[in-house]
Amino acid sequence: MIVLHKKSKNIPCDVCGNNCAKIVLLKEFSLLRGTVCSLLIKGFIGDTKYAIKKSNFNTLLQYFEKEAFEKIQDIDQEYASFYCKECKKCYCTEHWTRQVVYEDGFYDETRGICPNGHEKRLDD
């Protein structure tokens, strides 16, 4: 894979200033697959890599640079699950009260309550 574009950004917690997540946007090229775009979220409920549409790459890049997390969540909630839309703030995992939900013995989702009592899905 040849990296065509790579942009990373650390997102600080609005309570303690610690890192909520490190966001990495990648555009890569390979002879077999052509151009591939992905979003890597490190440090918030583990590390997760998402394949993203090429058409969303530049939009997401602009939104992350502007820290427009609400708009990012409009594309996919999990791309900025550390962000609470009601508070308009980012929180690290220490400030979300988390509950892992299992269905029929298998992982279903992680729900969270922000410091101001707003509940949402953090991971699915």
How many helix segments? 2
Sheet with the most strands: spatial strand order: 1-2-3-4
Give the helices and strands as they follow along the chain.
EEEEHHEEEEE
Helix percentage: 10-25%
**Which blocks of ≥5 consecutive residues have pLDDT under 50?**
none
Supply Rg.
15 Å
Distance between the termini: 29 Å
In what range is the share of β-strand residues? over 45%
- Nearest-integer average pLDDT: 91
Strand tally, please?
Answer: 9
What structural class do helix, strand and pairing data support? alpha+beta
Number of domains: 1
The 3D shape can be described as globular
The largest sheet is: 4 strands, antiparallel
Helix and strand topology:
Blueprint: E1 2-12, E2 19-30, E3 34-42, E4 48-52, H1 54-66, H2 69-75, E5 83-84, E6 89-90, E7 97-103, E8 106-113, E9 119-123
Antiparallel strand pairs: 1-2, 2-3, 3-4, 5-6, 7-8, 8-9
Helix pairs in contact: 1-2
